[in-house]
Amino acid sequence: MSGQDHDRQPDASSTPDGSGTPSQDSLQDPPASRGQLKGQRAAAARDLKRQAALEAHQRGVVRRAPMTAGLAGAGVVVLVAAAVTAGTLVPPATPEVDGRAAPAALNAVPVRSVCAGPPRLPAGAEEGTDTQFSPVSTSAVSRVTSVLLSDLAGRFPGTSISTLQSAENGESGEGAEPVDLTESQPEEVQQGDPATAGADGVLVRESAVDHLESPGGEAGEATAVTVEPIGGQAMPSDAVSLYSATDGDLAGTDASSCLAPAHEHWLTGMTTTVGSTSILVLSNPSASASTVDLTLYGADGPVEAPGTAGIVLAPGQTRSIVLGGMAPDEEHLAVQVRAQGGAVGATAQQHRLFGITPGGVEVIQPTSNPSRGVVMPGLVVPNRAVTEEIVGQDGYEQAGPALSLAAPTSAATAEITVSGPDGTVELPEGGLVDIGAGSTVRFPLDGLDDGVYTVTVSADAPVAASARGLSGQAGEPVDFSSVSAVDSLGLERLVARPENTTANLVLYSADGGAVEITPVSEDGSLGESRVQELGPESTRALSFEDLAGGEGGVPSGALLETVEGQVYAAVDVRGEQGISAYPVVPQQEQVSGVPVRVGY
Q1: First-to-final CA distance of the chain
Q2: Which residues, other chains included, contact 2 with Cβ-Cβ below 8 Å and sequence gap of 6+?
Q3: Where is the composition biased (Polar residues) (predicted)?
Q4: Closest Cα to residue 347, out of 445, 243, 463, 275?
């Protein structure tokens, strides 16, 4: 049938009653025009294609069903002609499709975290921003402590630690083989169903603790810890690195949590003034190359510097950048790290010299992303008299406890609160500070008695922040701790304690809460649990030694389970050479699928 056939007047053979006289229905609905018929044919063809695609989808077959000439031509025209004869075009029934997002099942993947290498002095830093490190102290010691739990059947996930290679040494990233801490489980155990009990029906849960001396080798490189899944889930695990030295420019103590790589990090509180050295260390533990861009914020606003864009990291590679070469003479520098490709780890190694006297060493870890509410537990300060004596020395004016804030997007007014074991503490300088858009400020935290505190910030625009603690005496070497902002714990979190240190688990809750704490012993057993209540805006510092309840030695870690409210946590560390602190971030989530939306 051609298109011209539709232009003829109806005859007797084409009328419904065969009399040659148009019916009442055909008088009310005139014949469709050529343009209308063309649109009807296209609509009918689309409906047929859609229906074919839906049927193929329901059969689980993804294929194209080509329309034959007869189907696309005569068949469609017959369908349209029949509809026109009836006086109306009846649309096909809309198929029912569930367009809601559903998880597409994927294999559980290993959880990976990056451990910072020991602080080192830069060699050849004056030649550019890329630097090669060389160890200096003759007494420096570094180690990593790893703690993990089994599933309910007593099965431990496979765990290994690998060394990341320095780009400054010309390494491609392919270093030594990983060192196994626990044996890898078969694939069916990793990806199978979670266990609810042991083979005899009895619930079994144990811990595994490992201590590794100089895990990054003689060069002191960063390392990566990999923990495989069990039963399609991530097992609770944690690792922490410790550095200590009694001599040299790098005398001091640092403890750093091994944190998950990410595509965005924020670091605040770096100093690039005379006598201070800050080195940004970027690590790529993934199997994919990564390209990193940096954004720097200083006291006068964003810092424009060459070499901040397109920093390439091969898989398994680290790169060290002297921040003083990019942003010199900054008292409180903030850096945003953004990565494309593989996720990266980011830390800043920092040390100071007050004349020829060592001024402490610390590894600044990422703080929580900018927000209007920021929480920093674990600030340790001496009593106000000691602080005043230290700060009163020539050149030590900026050495007191302080808060570093950055407002990256817009100007902000921030209210600062410091909370101790008995609630909030009044600050001599008040609690309000203004931050210009894209700039940073330093807020002194002088006037506090010795103790452990939580610093909170409430602002009218997103801010990033970290605090700095202090230890030591006037006339002697001092040491600092960097206190990162953290998110609330979540349901369950395992925390490792550095070996041969005195450490406190620091807990805080704004509105009050409770957390159940189970000590993890060196011999692999789990001790008796206790529930710690937290009052509103109060900070509790619990000694790891006290967590054992007088049974056995000092626990190597603790399992935290939130019972009530939102709880924030950190660990403050005391050593013979100084102090340190590291954040307790929420347990890394295990991704078992990605959202997929089915539709047309």
Answers
A1: 33
A2: none
A3: 11-27
A4: 243
Q: Are the C-beta atoms of 456 and 375 separated by less than 8 Å?
A: yes
Asked if 333 and 272 touch (Cβ cutoff 8 Å), the reply is yes
- 189: which residues sit within 8 A by CB, 6+ positions away? 155, 230, 231
Residue 533: beta bridge partners?
Answer: 514
Helix/strand/coil for 434 = strand
Q: Is 169 exposed, middle or buried (0-12, 13-18, 19+ CB in 10 A)?
A: exposed
Mean pLDDT of 354-361: 87
Task: For residue 291, list its beta bridge partners.
Answer: 312, 340
Q: Residue 400: what are its φ and ψ, rounded to 5°?
A: -75, 165
- Residue 105: count other Cβ atoms within 10 Å of its Cβ: 9
Burial 30-46 (b: 16+ CB within 10 A, else e): ebbeeeebeebbeebbe
* Confidence at residue 57, expressed as pLDDT on a 0 to 100 scale: 42
DSSP-derived letter for residue 278 is E
Q: What is the pLDDT of residues 298-328, one digit of tens each?
A: 999 999 999 999 999 999 999 999 999 999 9
**Left (φ > 0), alpha (ψ -120 to 50) or beta: where does 124 sit?**
left
User: Tokens standing for 302?
Assistant: 């964003």
Q: Are 353 and 248 in contact (CB under 8 A)?
A: no
The CA distance from 324 to 482, in Å, is 19
Residues 6+ apart with CB under 8 A from 248: 136, 137, 138, 139, 140, 358
Element (H, E) at 50: helix 34-58
Cα–Cα distances in Å, from 326 out to 120, 308, 315, 362? 19, 8, 25, 20
Q: CA–CA separation, 62 vs 296, rounded Å?
A: 49
Task: State which H helix or E strand residue 241 sits in.
Answer: strand 237-245
> Using H for helix, E for strand and C for coil, what is the string for 448-510?
CCCEEEEEEEEEEEEEEEEEEEEECCCCCCCEEEEEECCCCCCCEEEEECCCCCEEEEEEEEC
Residue 233 CA to residue 592 CA, distance in Å, equals 8
294: left (phi over 0), alpha (psi -120 to 50) or beta: beta
Cα–Cα distances (Å) from 210 to 316, 387, 489, in that order, read: 23, 38, 24
What is the spatial distance between Cα 480 and Cα 363, in angstroms, rounded to a whole number?
10
Model confidence pLDDT, tens digit, residues 219-242 = 788 999 999 999 999 999 999 999
Specify the pairing of strand 317-322 against strand 165-166: parallel
CB atoms within 10 A of CB 345: 28
Cα(306)–Cα(309) distance, integer angstroms: 8
Element (H, E) at 83: helix 76-86
Task: Indicate the helix (H) or strand (E) that contains 388.
Answer: helix 384-391
What is the reported pTM?
0.79
Among residues 335, 326, 352, 339, which one has the least CA distance to residue 269? 335
Q: Retrieve residue 132's tokens.
A: 């090669």
